[in-house]
From TrEMBL:
<keyword id="KW-0597">Phosphoprotein</keyword>
<dbReference type="Pfam" id="PF00072">
    <property type="entry name" value="Response_reg"/>
</dbReference>
<dbReference type="InterPro" id="IPR000792">
    <property type="entry name" value="Tscrpt_reg_LuxR_C"/>
</dbReference>
<dbReference type="InterPro" id="IPR058245">
    <property type="entry name" value="NreC/VraR/RcsB-like_REC"/>
</dbReference>
<feature type="domain" description="Response regulatory">
    <location>
        <begin position="3"/>
        <end position="119"/>
    </location>
</feature>
<feature type="domain" description="HTH luxR-type">
    <location>
        <begin position="143"/>
        <end position="208"/>
    </location>
</feature>
<dbReference type="GO" id="GO:0003677">
    <property type="term" value="F:DNA binding"/>
</dbReference>
<dbReference type="InterPro" id="IPR011006">
    <property type="entry name" value="CheY-like_superfamily"/>
</dbReference>
<keyword id="KW-0805">Transcription regulation</keyword>
<dbReference type="GO" id="GO:0006355">
    <property type="term" value="P:regulation of DNA-templated transcription"/>
</dbReference>
<dbReference type="Pfam" id="PF00196">
    <property type="entry name" value="GerE"/>
</dbReference>
<dbReference type="GO" id="GO:0000160">
    <property type="term" value="P:phosphorelay signal transduction system"/>
</dbReference>
<protein>
    <submittedName>
        <fullName>Response regulator protein vraR</fullName>
    </submittedName>
</protein>
<dbReference type="InterPro" id="IPR039420">
    <property type="entry name" value="WalR-like"/>
</dbReference>
<feature type="modified residue" description="4-aspartylphosphate">
    <location>
        <position position="54"/>
    </location>
</feature>
<keyword id="KW-0238">DNA-binding</keyword>
<dbReference type="InterPro" id="IPR001789">
    <property type="entry name" value="Sig_transdc_resp-reg_receiver"/>
</dbReference>
Length: 215
């Protein structure tokens, strides 16, 4: 079961999400929070797998709540579910550690698939948000450059990761074991100073690291 915590200041939104997610056999809603502060407190109490996080909430917004969650419980994943697709909201959300970013007009079935994708360690970002991210990253020249260059094989793994492939799919494409892929991904995260696959993929796009190496 995928344990989900819903964090949104609108009661109607929480009720709607709860009603639909309860129909899914592999998803369990373990709690609801009406603001970011309450979300952080419930994460500590309930230890969900994924938090569906609104951006604009009273007392503590979704960005600050995500930062606290990722700092204290880095294994817990956050899926932003919001009405904002502009880069001023998308970029800070990803930088805070969100594993995905979807808009509230998403079809229910697509939202469920996004939850499952995140649980599998894959990327899930709404197309409108993706375009804003790419624009924002092109404008942002203040990100640190790689201090330790990636090896050719790590570049290959990063290129496959950027396509949204799972560890198993990457292993199959590169003819290596999943254990080897996990090791390479861990090294990539350390060298790029990122926390998850989404941030690594965005870094790769900005710094043109998505081309595979010729054999």
């Amino acid at each position: 079961m995928i344990r989900v915590l819903i964090a949104d200041d609108h009661h109607v939104v929480r009720r709607g999400l709860l009603f639909f997610l309860k129909t899914q056999k592999d998803i369990e809603v373990v709690g609801e929070a009406k603001n970011g502060l309450e979300a952080v407190e419930l994460v500590e109490q309930l230890s969900p797998d994924i938090v569906l996080m609104d951006l604009v909430m009273p007392e503590m917004d979704g960005i600050q709540a995500t930062k606290k969650i990722k700092k204290n419980w880095p294994h817990i994943k956050v899926l932003m579910l919001t009405s904002f697709s502009d880069k001023d909201h998308v970029l800070p959300a990803i930088d805070a550690g969100a594993s995905g970013y979807q808009l509230k007009d998403i079809e229910p079935d697509d939202l469920v698939e996004s939850i499952r994708q995140i649980m599998r360690g894959e990327n899930t970002i709404h197309p409108d948000a993706t375009s804003q991210l790419e624009e924002g990253l092109r404008e942002d020249e203040n990100k640190p450059h790689i201090l330790n260059p990636l090896t050719p094989r790590e570049q290959d793994v990063l290129a496959e990761l950027t396509k949204g492939k799972s560890n198993r799919e990457i292993a199959s494409s590169l003819y290596v074991t999943e254990k080897t892929v996990k090791t390479h991904i861990s090294n990539i995260f350390a060298k790029l100073h990122v926390q998850d696959r989404t941030q690594a993929a965005l870094y790769a796009v900005k710094h043109n690291l998505t081309e595979t190496n010729e054999s």
